[in-house]
Specification:
alpha/beta; Rossmann fold; 3 domains; six-stranded mixed beta sheet; two-stranded antiparallel ribbon; 16 helices; flat; Bact_transf
C-alpha cells in the first residue's frame, strides 16, 4: 500500500478494524491505543528498507574480517560465498510491510518483529552453506554466530538512530497526514473529534469547512470551499473527507463539491452514508474503524514524485553545465540585437494552482512585452525581435526554464504552464474548460505530450484548448520515467526544428 492511501487498509491492520461498520451505523468508540491510526508512508518505508540493506552489508563485512582473522585462516572464497548468500536471503526474505507503518515503526517491538525472521533466515542459510563448503562443523557454526552478532549490532545501531530521528518534531510534522473535513453535522463532528483526539501523531486536522452558501462564521468553522482551495495552495494537504448530513440530494451535493475541489492536489474521500447503489464499488479505505470511499486520488505517489524530481534535477543540472557556453553566446546576441534585459520573467500557474515566475530568453522588444499574456503571441508578431524570431523557431527561448526545474517549480516534461490571463475563445482557461484545472495536479513542464503531438502555439478556440488538455491528461494518466524520456527524445527530433514554433 502506498502513502496515497488515507490509512492502512483492512489487509494491513485487520485486528484494528475487524467487523468495522459504516460510521453512521455504529456509535463512535474511543480506543486508547498507543498508535491507533498508523499508515504506511512509502518513502519512509523505502528508506528504512535501504538502510537495513546497508546495515546488513556493513555487519557482514565486519563479520567477514573477523572470520578470516580469528576463525578460519584459509578458504576465503567459501567464507565470502556464505556471507553473500546470507545477505541475499535477508534482502529477499518476505517481510511484514505493515510493521513499517508510521508511527508504529518507532516501537521496539514492531522493529524486532520485522527484523527477526529475515535475520534468522540469513543465519540458517549461512550455517547450511558453510557446513557444505567447509569440513569443520564447529568453525561453520562459529562463523554463522559471528555473522548474526555483527548484523544484529549493525541493525540495532541503525534502528536506534532511526527511532531518535522519527521522534523529532520537525520530522513528525513532515510525516503527519493533514486531513480536511468538508461538512457539518454529527458525522463531520465525530471525524473532527477523532482526528483531534484519537489519531495520535499520524494525522492532524487541516480544518473543517462548509460548502453551503449559508456559511456562518459564528459556527467556528475554518471557512468555505474557496477558503479551503486557497489555503491548500499555501499549506500541505493530503486528504479531504466529504461528510455532509444525510439529506435529500446528498449525492448531487457530493458531485458538485467534488467538481469544485478538482483544482486541489489531494486525495478526496466521502463517508459511506452519502453514496449508494453503483457508487459503492468505489475503492474503500479506513480512518481507524471508519470506512470512507475514494472519489479522487493524486495522480502520482510520493515515490513516483521523488523519482521524477531526482531525474529532473540531475538532467537539468547536467544539461545546464553542458550548454553554458552556448547560452552565454545567446545572451550576448540578445543584448546586441535590442535594448533590455536578457531574460524575460512572466507569472505562470504551476502545480496545485500556485503562481511562479517563469524564465525565458527575451524574444520581444522590451517596451512591447506583455507581462500578463493578455495577448498571445501569433505568427509574424511585430513585437518579436530579429534574434527572438530564431530563438522561438528553434525553441531556444525556453531553455532558461531549466532554472525553474532546478528551483523545483517545473519539470522537464509536463503540461505547459500558461499565464493567469491567457484566454481561449474569449474566456479564461479555467472557465473555458472544466477539465483544465486537472493539469494543476502535476508540475508544468518545459516540453510535453501535447507539444510533440502538434498541440502548441496560440490558443484561438475552445477546440484548441480541448485538444491540448486531452493530451495533457493522457500524459498524467500514462506517466512513467520511460514515457518522460520518450517525450524528451521526440521533442529534440520533432520540435526543435518544428514549423509550428513562432
Amino acid at each position: 500500500m502506498s502513502d496515497r492511501r488515507l490509512v492502512v487498509d483492512s489487509g494491513c491492520v485487520a485486528s484494528d478494524i475487524e467487523g468495522a461498520q459504516p460510521l453512521v451505523e455504529v456509535p463512535a468508540i474511543r480506543q486508547l491505543l498507543r498508535e491507533p491510526y498508523p499508515y504506511l508512508h512509502s518513502i519512509l518505508a523505502m528508506t528504512v528498507r535501504g538502510l537495513d540493506v546497508v546495515s546488513v552489508a556493513v555487519g557482514t563485512m565486519v563479520a567477514d574480517w573477523f572470520e578470516k582473522s580469528h576463525i578460519v585462516h584459509s578458504g576465503g572464497t567459501g567464507i565470502d560465498a556464505t556471507d553473500l548468500v546470507a545477505v541475499m536471503v535477508f534482502c529477499l526474505f518476505p517481510k511484514k510491510s505493515k510493521l513499517l507503518a508510521f508511527p508504529k515503526i518507532r516501537r521496539a517491538k514492531a522493529q524486532v518483529r520485522y527484523l527477526i525472521t529475515p535475520v534468522l533466515a540469513g543465519w540458517f542459510a549461512h550455517v547450511c552453506l558453510s557446513t557444505i563448503l567447509m569440513s569443520n562443523g564447529v568453525a561453520s557454526l562459529k562463523m554463522a554466530v559471528m555473522w548474526a552478532v555483527c548484523v544484529c549490532a549493525a541493525l540495532s545501531f541503525e534502528r536506534s538512530v532511526l527511532t531518535f530521528c522519527l521522534h523529532q518534531p520537525a520530522i513528525v510534522a513532515r510525516l503527519r497526514r493533514r486531513v480536511a473535513i468538508v461538512g457539518t453535522g454529527a458525522v463531520a463532528t465525530d471525524l473532527v473529534n477523532r482526528l483531534c483526539s484519537d489519531a495520535g501523531q499520524a494525522y492532524s486536522l487541516f480544518g473543517q469547512f462548509d460548502d453551503t452558501a449559508q456559511y456562518d462564521a459564528d459556527r467556528k468553522l475554518d471557512g468555505t470551499l474557496d477558503d479551503l482551495i486557497h489555503r491548500s495552495r499555501r499549506e500541505a494537504l493530503h486528504a479531504i473527507i466529504l461528510a455532509f448530513p444525510e439529506a435529500g440530494g446528498a449525492e448531487a451535493r457530493v458531485r458538485n463539491v467534488a467538481v469544485s475541489l478538482k483544482p486541489v492536489l489531494s486525495d478526496i474521500y466521502v463517508t459511506p452514508h452519502l453514496v449508494s447503489g453503483f457508487d459503492r464499488v468505489l475503492p474503500c479505505e479506513f480512518l481507524g474503524e471508519n470506512a470512507v470511499f475514494v472519489i479522487q486520488r493524486r495522480p502520482l505517489s510520493d515515490v513516483q514524485l521523488l523519482e521524477k524530481t531526482v531525474v529532473d534535477f540531475l538532467l537539468a543540472f547536467c544539461v545546464s553545465i553542458f550548454l553554458l557556453p552556448f547560452l552565454i553566446g545567446v545572451a550576448l546576441a540578445i543584448k546586441c540585437d535590442s535594448k533590455g534585459p536578457v531574460f524575460f520573467r512572466q507569472p505562470r500557474i504551476g502545480k496545485n494552482g500556485r503562481e511562479f515566475m517563469v524564465y525565458k530568453f527575451r524574444s520581444m522588444h522590451t517596451h512591447m512585452s506583455d507581462l500578463m499574456a493578455e495577448r498571445q503571441t501569433s505568427r509574424d508578431d511585430p513585437r518579436v525581435t530579429r534574434i527572438g524570431k530564431w530563438l522561438r523557431r528553434l525553441s531556444i527561448d525556453e531553455v532558461p526554464q531549466l532554472l525553474n526545474v532546478l528551483k523545483g517549480e517545473m519539470s522537464l516534461v509536463g503540461p505547459r504552464p500558461h499565464a493567469p490571463h491567457t484566454r481561449a475563445g474569449g474566456l479564461l482557461l479555467d472557465d473555458a474548460l472544466a477539465e483544465y484545472v486537472l493539469r494543476y495536479h502535476v508540475k508544468p513542464g518545459i516540453t510535453g505530450w501535447a507539444q510533440i503531438n502538434g498541440a502548441r502555439g496560440e490558443l484561438v478556440t475552445i477546440d484548441d484548448l480541448k485538444k491540448r488538455v486531452a493530451y495533457d491528461l493522457d500524459y498524467i494518466r500514462r506517466w512513467s520515467l520511460v514515457f518522460d524520456f520518450r517525450i524528451m527524445i521526440l521533442t529534440i527530433v520533432r520540435e526543435v526544428f518544428s514549423r509550428h514554433a513562432f
